[in-house]
Design brief:
DNA Binding (I), subunit A; two-stranded antiparallel ribbon; single chain
């Protein structure tokens, strides 16, 4: 990821999107890179390390659920 993109994300978001914490902030991909998400600003969000870990454990399940919903329509 480019350094200036990281800087812009942290300028726009100075705290965790989920819990509001300002400690251990990390940049997270809204749509995971492993699933084809890119480094554009709109795909990046700031999460603290705790929320990022929580998201990492649940994102696969969410992704599968979304796929199932889209399939039915
Ligand atoms: Zn958090």
């Amino acid at each position: 990821m480019k350094i200036d993109v990281r800087r812009r994300v942290f300028t726009l978001n100075s705290k965790c999107l989920k819990c509001g914490s300002t400690n251990n902030l990390q940049i997270d991909h809204v749509y995971p890179k492993s699933k084809g998400g890119s480094d554009i600003l709109g795909n990046l969000q700031v999460l603290c390390s705790k929320c990022n870990i929580k998201k990492g454990k649940s994102s696969n399940q969410i992704f599968l659920n979304l796929r199932r919903e889209n399939h039915g329509r």
